[in-house]
Design brief:
- Helices cover about 75% and strands about 0% of the residues.
- The protein is mostly helical.
- It is globular and about 55 Å long.
- The two termini are about 25 Å apart.
- The mean pLDDT is about 90.
């Protein structure tokens, strides 16, 4: 496992050496979202009984930041390695495709969780937020980070330049994240859009994560966990196949 640990350490150091950009900046962005939305809508919106709108936003913003940064970690690492040509030094090592996959995914989860925890810590200045089911929150956080890490791996392999990667993020990741219930409950939507939201896997990640904070969710947490786990399994299968084939990596 020394090769896996070495690559994992390299991926962790890659983002930690620029932590001001990769960790601090997303935390600041989420804090600004919270300040703006809570100031404007606090007195006008109540989603769950007894839960203020500001408190409702906290887990959603933390999970959104976690997901986006998990995606950014794997996708940016691969596209940079491909463009600079140093991907060859990774491919020449005696590492299996499974070791490559897990090193990238674990680093993505670590970065995502660090950013999500930072967002949660900063938002505590608005007041205490309950956490009655921490294990549920942790399960959805880790699986969500793994899903976005796998998506970032797929996007990084597919993209040949930064423009393509930015398009993938802007037209796939960002819309799915913002339309997953970060700023609202899907129960407030018309029936058609409620049904459409249930086709979005990001909805189950954020809804399940929010359940860990309030004990209330739009869908049964066990159902959400099964869907999230199945999504992670499917994306992991695709990622492993791409790494094994060497598509767009060896040429």
């Amino acid at each position: 496992m020394s090769g896996f640990l070495t690559l994992l350490r390299k991926e962790l150091l890659r983002f930690w050496k620029v932590a001001f950009q990769t960790v601090a900046a997303p935390i600041l962005t989420a804090a600004l979202y919270l300040l703006v939305f809570s100031h404007v809508l606090e007195a006008h919106v109540q989603v769950y009984p007894g839960v203020s709108y500001t408190a409702f936003l906290v887990p959603g913003l933390a999970m959104m930041s976690l997901l986006q940064n998990a995606f950014a970690n794997t996708s940016s690492s691969l596209i940079q390695s491909k463009i600079t040509g140093n991907i060859v030094f990774v491919l020449l090592t005696p590492l299996s495709h499974a070791e490559l996959y897990w090193a990238y995914i674990c680093a993505a989860v670590v970065r995502g969780v660090m950013v999500g925890a930072g967002v949660f810590a900063v938002t505590l200045i608005t007041g205490p937020v309950p956490l009655p089911h921490p294990l549920w929150a942790a399960a959805f956080a880790v699986l969500g980070g793994g899903i976005l890490g796998a998506l970032g791996l797929i996007a990084g392999i597919w993209a040949d330049k930064f423009d393509q990667l930015a398009a993938f993020q802007n037209f796939v990741i960002v819309p799915l994240t913002f339309l997953s219930g970060v700023f609202y409950s899907v129960h407030s939507l018309p029936p058609f859009w409620q049904a459409a939201s249930h086709l979005n896997p990001f909805f189950y990640m954020i809804d399940g994560f929010r359940y860990g904070f309030f004990g209330v969710s739009d869908i049964a947490p066990l159902t959400g966990l099964c869907i999230v786990g199945a999504t992670f399994g499917g994306l992991s299968f695709v990622s492993l196949r791409l790494l094994r084939s060497g598509w767009k990596l060896r040429s």
